[in-house]
Design brief:
- It is a single chain.
- About 20% of the residues lie in helices and about 45% in strands.
- With about 130 residues, the protein is an alpha+beta fold.
- The protein folds into two domains: about 30 residues; about 100 residues, Immunoglobulins (Immunoglobulin-like, Sandwich).
- The protein has a four-stranded antiparallel β-sheet with strand order 1-3-6-5, with no helix packed on it.
- It is elongated and about 85 Å long.
- The chain starts with a helix and ends with a strand.
Length: about 130
């Protein structure tokens, strides 16, 4: 009985230590904040330019590292700042949409990083005119 009580107390102490450690890590980690997370291109000409830069800032206390950026389809090509972003520093995710696909579109981009608020979802939308 003493052994069970001892192991239970030991287990609760371990859980408490882990929880406190995660709280400290979350406060001291990077945080990614975007100026804009949803961009509307409006109407774009067929084979026109549909490129947008999503600007972000690291508002955390440690360097921000973008691990990868994933688009919802092959018609959307993201590129990103590969270097670590210092606290209070800025970076960008550049998204290009293939304008050889007439019609309306809404595409999602997911940004994965070491930030406490990762992943972040970005959206682009608009309409591509028919070819003339």
């Amino acid at each position: 009985m003493k052994r069970i009580l001892f192991l239970a107390i030991l287990g609760f102490l371990a859980i408490d230590c882990i929880a406190q450690n995660q709280t400290v890590q979350a406060k001291d980690s990077a945080e990614i904040i975007f100026d804009e997370i949803d961009h509307n291109f409006g109407v774009v000409n067929y084979k026109g330019d549909a490129t947008f830069e999503f600007i972000f800032k690291n508002t955390g206390k440690t360097p921000l590292i973008i691990k990868h950026v994933q688009s919802s389809c092959g018609c959307t090509t993201p590129s990103f700042t590969a270097e670590p972003i210092a606290p209070k520093g800025k970076g960008k995710i550049v998204v290009k949409y293939d304008t050889e696909r007439p019609g309306s579109f809404i595409k999602n981009i997911k940004v994965f990083s070491n930030a406490k608020n990762s992943p972040v979802d970005l959206t682009i939308r608009g309409e591509i005119k028919q070819a003339q």
